[in-house]
Each structure stands twice: as C-alpha cells, then as structure tokens.
Specification:
The N and C termini lie far apart (74 Å). This protein is an alpha/beta fold.
Length: 311
C-alpha cells in the first residue's frame, strides 16, 4: 500500500488515544464510530503496526502504538505551526535581505522599517560573508542579496549565479576608497594609490571557510604586495573600533553614513577600476513590494552620494 501521509487519520488516532474509547472519540470528532474505526484500521495497515489493542474491556495503546502516537503528536504540532504561519490571512510577511558589510545598506534598511507605519511586515537584515549572501538568496532565506562586483571577482560571482538560477542588477558604481580613522597619517590626503597603502595593516571581513579568494569583501586585494598584518573581523562594529584606534586601513565603497563621519574619513584610490554594487535575486521570482521599496531607497541613497561626489 502506498504510504502517503494522511494528517487527518493521525489526528483521529491521537483523539482516540486521548478519549480512551472509539465511542467518545467519534463523539468529539462528530463522525460515526464505524467510520472512525475504519480510518484507524487503514492507518494501522498503512504503517504495518497495531496502535490500539481492542478488548471487551475497552482499548489499550500498544507499545509500538505509544511510540507511533508520540511521532504523530510531533507531526500534527508542526502542521499546526505551519498552517498558522501560512494560512492565516492576517499574518505578517517577512522581508529578508542578506548583504556584505555596508553602512548604506543598514541605513536603507532602517528607513524601510521606519516607513512601515502599519507594521505590516517582519524584517530581517543579515550582514554576512559573500558566499553566504549568495547561498541565502539561493535557498530563499533572503529575497535579495547585496554585493559588489568588479573585474577581479565577476567571473566567480557570475558563474555561481548562473549555476544557481540567480540574476543580478546593478544599483550603482563607485570608485574604491580607503576608510581610516581621523588621526590616521593618510586622513588628510586628497587621493591615494595602491602603493600608498602597503605600509599599513589592513582590515578584512572574514569569509566562509573554503570559499574562493576572489570572493573577498574588500574592493581591492593588496595580496602579497603588502608586508603588513591582516586583521580579520566579522562585524562592522569591530572594524570601526580598529580603524579609529589604530593605523589600519579598510578598502571599500567610500560611502560613509552620518553616525561615523566624526570618527572616520575616506580617501579615493585613483589607480584602480570602479566597482559595482549589485543586488541578486531568484531569476524566476517576482520581487515583493517591500523588496522594490528597499531597492528604491538604496538607489536614492547611492545616487545622492555618488552625485555629491561628482559635483
């Protein structure tokens, strides 16, 4: 017999066990006792076990029936959670975005949440490694992901996206900058070259173990040209503290949001190509209204920053 899961029959078995008799269970379920008895026998045949021992004194739960009912209760509990989550017409939808570690993304996220006056959604922002950003979108844990792409990493990123049926759209282009503390020796420079950076330790965000070196989050890889130490961090708060209190540098977009302008500054690097901020999504899935609003906020912020830098 085909063992297709039948949640209704599982419920019948649990009600019989809780009621102590088929008669009482049938009354609680508003069904004929004969129909209930038939359903339980079909369930027992389906799983090739005896859940209840039927005697003149009533019914008793067998040893294997007790174990089966334990699993049945767990299954029904999970089904109830799922139905409450997805069949409730008034339930709040979740908007989730994964991103590399960018101040402007968290600021746009905060604006999106603040504009939801009706509190109609749940929200989740995950700042994580490059690989995990792509994995989260692939597995539908996040609807969109925010990354940068340039000549150095685009082959690896495009290969991953194509293989996993993801697409990308450019939001904006930026000239790589160095983030440094206000007291850093390079803080007052109008521009820098790659050679200027080699004398200083660099901050880099930790990546997923085993991922390609081309998936580094920093917009410039100094690699073996630098003899200085590398400081690996996993969150923006630590990176900011290190930059403010040491002579370390961090290469990135140059976009510095207002809370950090009193502590840090950015200086453009002139001898490298532009980088591109992109968002990725499932190529077959239409973006939700919240995702479109979020991307609109990101576009506005990047246009303001890039426009003011060009003027």
């Amino acid at each position: 017999m085909e063992r297709a899961m039948n949640f209704q029959k599982l419920k019948y078995a649990v009600v019989v066990a809780d009621s102590g008799s088929f008669r009482e269970a049938a009354r609680r379920l508003f069904m004929a006792q004969s129909s209930l008895s038939t359903a339980i026998r079909e369930l027992e045949e389906m799983y090739d076990l005896q859940i209840f021992e039927r005697t003149k004194r009533g019914i008793f739960i067998t040893e294997e029936g007790s174990e089966f009912l334990s699993y049945a209760r767990d299954v029904l509990s999970q089904v109830s959670v799922m139905e409450n989550r997805y069949l409730d017409a008034d339930r709040k939808k979740l908007f989730s975005v994964s991103s590399q570690h960018y101040d402007f993304v968290s600021e746009a996220f905060a604006v999106l949440v603040a504009n939801d006056e009706d509190r109609a959604h749940h929200y989740r922002l995950l700042e994580t490694s490059t690989t995990d950003v792509m994995e989260n979108v692939k597995n539908a844990y996040s609807e969109i992901g925010i990354l940068y792409m340039n000549a150095y990493n685009q082959k690896v990123i495009k290969q991953y996206l194509n293989h996993n049926e993801l697409s990308y759209t450019e939001i904006g282009a930026f000239q790589p900058h160095v983030f440094v503390g206000k007291q850093h020796p390079l803080a007052d420079r109008e521009s820098l070259t790659q050679a200027d950076l080699l004398a200083y330790p660099s901050v880099t965000f930790e990546q997923t173990q085993g991922s390609s070196a081309q998936l580094t989050e920093e917009a410039l890889d100094l690699g073996e040209d630098s003899t200085q130490s590398t400081i690996y961090v996993s969150d923006r708060a630590t990176s900011i503290n290190v930059l403010v209190k040491t002579d370390a540098i961090l290469v990135g977009t140059g976009i510095l949001t207002s809370p950090f302008r009193d502590m840090m500054t950015t200086v453009p690097i002139t001898d490298v190509e532009d980088n591109h901020i992109i968002y990725i999504q499932n190529k077959y899935r239409k973006l939700s209204s919240e995702a479109e609003r979020f991307i609109g906020i990101l576009n506005d912020q990047l246009n303001d920053v890039i426009g003011s830098a060009d003027s």
